[in-house]
Amino acid sequence: MSNGTRDFGLLLGRLNHRMTVLGDRLFRRQDDAARAAGWQISRLWWGLGRRYRDPRIARRARSGAVRPKDEAAPPNDGERAPVLVGAAGRRVR
């Protein structure tokens, strides 16, 4: 490996680390809310994006427990799902 290639690799590694640290700071509150709800968190775009996923939905879909669209939803007994807001201030679905 040439010296220039190694230097470029080190530069990319440092940049990736800094972007990940910045993303962790930006999304700290949303990540904490997602973890408290038991959601899975995926880092995207060098740490500057997030994807939140509720694993219970996939389990229900595999088990056939998902109701048809025209069927009414049962009451949730006052339990609210966490509202996650991205860095741009938009709700994350």
UniProtKB/TrEMBL annotation:
The lineage of its organism: Bacteria, Bacillati, Actinomycetota, Actinomycetes, Cryptosporangiales. Residues 59-93 are annotated as: Disordered. It comes from Cryptosporangium minutisporangium. This is Transposase. Residues 67-80 have a biased composition (Basic and acidic residues).
